[in-house]
Amino acid sequence: MKKVLLEPFEHYTEKKLLGIGILGTLIGCFIAYVFHARFDGVLDVHFVKAIEIYHPFLDNSINIITLSLLLFITGKIINKKTRCIDILNACLIARLPYYLISFGNINNYMLMLSQKLLNFDPSQPQLMPIGGVDLLLLLAFAFISLLLLIYFLYLLYKGYQIATNAKGALAIGLFILAVLIAEVISKYLIYTLY
């Protein structure tokens, strides 16, 4: 089980990875819709008051396509034999654990807490709008979200590394650059479209 969670690209065929990735993405998008989560950037998740059913599907499609395209381009720089399907599978599979962040907003809980904190005036700490339990839950959510982000990036790099046969600092640098540029482009496209 440990190998499957840490090295899925070495244990499944490309067709199985593609099927799991697409099915998992569809389920992840539906969960995001139910819990009002917007994946409005390759690395971003925000909770909103109202959401249309197509928002998570469009958000994640833009994120996956943008990320796949940029990683494919950098993959070709590293290894001319890099295949698009392998990069796409890496992007699809790596994002699956990231969709779990949506569960943090059950009954709009995280949205409510974040809105209270945004309205907080730090010059009046005695008027802290949330209690100790809420603060602990918010910190736990932030910690779990950070772990899921790290796991997403780990899986993405493992998939990228296998797809491109990447080694060394150039591969790491191109990977980081591609992810950051994909974040900017996806965010721009999502907010330009709606």
From TrEMBL:
Stretches assigned to coiled coil: none
PROSITE patterns (UniProt xref): PROKAR_LIPOPROTEIN
Keyword Transcription (UniProt): no
Keywords associated with the record: Membrane, Transmembrane, Transmembrane helix
Domain of life: Bacteria
Entry's transmembrane regions: 17-37, 57-75, 96-115, 135-157, 169-191
Protein name: Yip1 domain-containing protein
The organism of origin for this protein: Mesonia aestuariivivens
